[in-house]
């Protein structure tokens, strides 16, 4: 008998109304916004088509032409106000993330906290958009870099971080002087509408925000394609599967637009002989089962040294057997639902395939919770004879594959022998192993950690990965540079015109006749 769970629809609609989402967002037919907690449809939304997407891009383009001339620290003030509004709305928006993406309460709230954090970061950044002054070989000249706003920034986001990914891009784009057109996942449009309403509150308080500075496109792949193909959008930050990136990347390259690709991961950890096993156990449990295995940084592959395998893996299997699975709104739940049936089917298929390869599967299978169209799965710990089959690819579900190793170099080679290159970690107290792991000859990922799991990044660092993860970077460090265009300026404040590299090109100014004194080679 499925456990009874109260309806999520009324609560979600009340939150959306409270945050100021207009009735015009809803329609009799259009995009179904559902909650994975119960599988019920929460609302039907008006969907954008090519024409309305083009119109939104047009408005954003106009807004850019105004916004780019607002001084950057003043632009930062808008983001500061956005951070304030997010603080005020944290409980409601966090709850909506839980309802729409199925994240447990602390993770729903944590996602909003991440938005607040990146706003704080961007406010500081708004006074630090500086370029270099570079020594010039010419007398009485100055050479410098100037950073200018770029244009309309397209943001395509995935369901599993329905709002934080937008903020990583948008907070930076706004202080950099860009406007933003956001195409959220078709699986999580409600949280996007809520964020747009929160943004509007900040914009109202700011006072002079040009209409169109933030546009939200409601729709699926076609709406994303319209954004990717529009020549008025010079930069697109696209977060989602590697399959999506394979379509989007070439289209952007074809029209020389900038791409920030944040794609799938197949993240691994190594547990070495000296590892603190208690620490490793906790780190692995969160990284592998947190967010029901639906993080891009979720731990999916574990290489355990032979000498500690029997001390760790049976304990891990016990944790898997006892982890609390259920309604993500309930205190004590650690694993909520998968986003939909397709996710559950993908997990079942991968488990069937590895079983055929001789793996031992602990856990897995459906839990009857929440209703016919709610897809709760028991996380699976899979002891593999070797790295093979589905282990080589991301299955976006809570499956952790474990392989024994004896030689550190072999473990490193296995670690790097997959297409994705997002996040990685090692548990070791051996300084040499730790340093080798983060060295040029170690992990080939964009994120490499020591004695913490691969999941749960902070906004201060640049986030992203290599290889099939797409190579993009967003959030902290100098990721802001992608949202601006760099101009190198050389200024002559003298009365002569010396040329670089010793080239001479003397012109008889009075005769207005060009008279090169040396042959010029170009
Ligand atoms: P998805 O690829 O199905 O969809 C992501 C977004 O891309 C959606 O908004 C979708 O409408 C859009 N889209 C799909 N095809 C498109 C196309 N041809 N043109 C334009 N837009 C298109 O991904 P998902 O299921 O929502 O999210 C899960 C995936 O995202 C996983 O692979 C996960 O690893 C990845 N992810 C990566 C990061 C990262 O930072 N690297 C972060 C979160 C999620």
UniProtKB/TrEMBL annotation:
<comment type="similarity">
    <text>Belongs to the aldehyde dehydrogenase family.</text>
</comment>
<feature type="domain" description="Aldehyde dehydrogenase">
    <location>
        <begin position="31"/>
        <end position="486"/>
    </location>
</feature>
<comment type="subunit">
    <text>Homotetramer.</text>
</comment>
<dbReference type="InterPro" id="IPR044638">
    <property type="entry name" value="ALDH7A1-like"/>
</dbReference>
<feature type="active site">
    <location>
        <position position="262"/>
    </location>
</feature>
<dbReference type="InterPro" id="IPR016161">
    <property type="entry name" value="Ald_DH/histidinol_DH"/>
</dbReference>
<protein>
    <recommendedName>
        <fullName>aldehyde dehydrogenase (NAD(+))</fullName>
        <ecNumber>1.2.1.3</ecNumber>
    </recommendedName>
</protein>
<dbReference type="InterPro" id="IPR015590">
    <property type="entry name" value="Aldehyde_DH_dom"/>
</dbReference>
<dbReference type="Pfam" id="PF00171">
    <property type="entry name" value="Aldedh"/>
</dbReference>
<dbReference type="InterPro" id="IPR029510">
    <property type="entry name" value="Ald_DH_CS_GLU"/>
</dbReference>
<dbReference type="InterPro" id="IPR016163">
    <property type="entry name" value="Ald_DH_C"/>
</dbReference>
<dbReference type="InterPro" id="IPR016162">
    <property type="entry name" value="Ald_DH_N"/>
</dbReference>
<dbReference type="GO" id="GO:0004029">
    <property type="term" value="F:aldehyde dehydrogenase (NAD+) activity"/>
</dbReference>
<keyword id="KW-0520">NAD</keyword>
<keyword id="KW-0560">Oxidoreductase</keyword>
């Amino acid at each position: 008998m499925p456990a009874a769970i109260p309806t999520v629809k009324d609560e979600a609609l009340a939150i959306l109304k409270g945050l100021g989402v207009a009735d015009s967002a809803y329609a009799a037919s259009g995009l179904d916004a559902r909650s994975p907690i119960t599988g019920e449809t929460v609302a039907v939304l008006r969907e954008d088509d090519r024409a309305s997407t083009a119109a939104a891009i047009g408005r954003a383009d106009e807004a850019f032409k105004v916004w780019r001339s607002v001084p950057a620290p003043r632009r930062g003030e808008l983001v500061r106000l956005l951070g304030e509004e997010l603080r005020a709305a944290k409980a409601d928006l966090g709850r909506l993330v839980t309802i729409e993406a199925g994240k447990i309460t602390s993770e729903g709230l944590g996602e909003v906290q991440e938005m607040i954090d990146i706003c704080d970061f961007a406010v500081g950044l708004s006074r630090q958009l500086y370029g270099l002054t570079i020594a010039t070989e010419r007398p009485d000249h100055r050479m410098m870099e100037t950073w200018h706003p770029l244009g309309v920034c397209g943001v395509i986001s995935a369901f599993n971080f329905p709002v934080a990914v937008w903020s990583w891009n948008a907070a930076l784009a706004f202080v950099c002087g860009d406007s933003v057109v956001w195409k959220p996942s078709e699986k999580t449009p409600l949280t996007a509408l809520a964020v747009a309403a929160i943004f509007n509150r900040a914009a109202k308080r700011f006072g002079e925000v040009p209409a169109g500075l933030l546009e939200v496109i409601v729709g699926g792949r076609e709406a994303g394609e319209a954004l990717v193909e529009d020549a008025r959008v010079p930069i697109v930050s696209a977060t989602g599967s590697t399959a999506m990136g394979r379509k989007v990347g070439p289209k952007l390259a074809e029209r020389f637009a900038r791409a920030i690709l944040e794609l799938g991961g197949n993240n691994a950890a190594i547990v070495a002989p000296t590892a603190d096993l208690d620490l490793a156990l906790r780190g692995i449990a969160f990284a592998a089962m947190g967010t029901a295995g639906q993080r891009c940084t979720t731990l999916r592959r574990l290489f355990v040294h032979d000498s500690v395998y029997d001390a760790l893996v049976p304990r891990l299997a016990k944790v898997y057997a006892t982890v609390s699975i259920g309604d993500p709104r309930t205190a004590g739940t650690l694993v909520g639902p998968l986003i939909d049936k397709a996710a559950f089917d993908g997990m079942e298929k991968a488990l069937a395939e590895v079983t055929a390869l001789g793996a031992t599967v602990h856990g897995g299978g459906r839990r009857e919770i929440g209703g016919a169209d709610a897809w709760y799965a028991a996380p699976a710990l899979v002891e593999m004879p070797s790295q093979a089959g589905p282990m080589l690819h991301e299955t976006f579900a809570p499956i952790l594959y474990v392989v024994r190793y004896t030689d550190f170099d072999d473990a490193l080679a296995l670690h790097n022998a997959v297409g994705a290159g997002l996040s990685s970690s090692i548990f070791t107290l051996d300084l040499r192993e730790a340093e080798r792991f983060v060295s040029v000859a170690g992990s080939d990922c964009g994120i490499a950690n020591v004695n913490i799991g691969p999941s749960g990044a902070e906004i201060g660092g640049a986030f992203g990965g290599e290889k099939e993860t797409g190579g993009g970077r967003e959030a902290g460090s100098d990721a802001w540079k992608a949202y601006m265009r760099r101009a190198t300026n050389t200024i002559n404040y003298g009365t002569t015109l010396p040329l670089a590299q010793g080239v001479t090109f003397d012109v008889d100014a009075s005769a207005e006749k060009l008279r090169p004194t040396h042959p010029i080679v170009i």
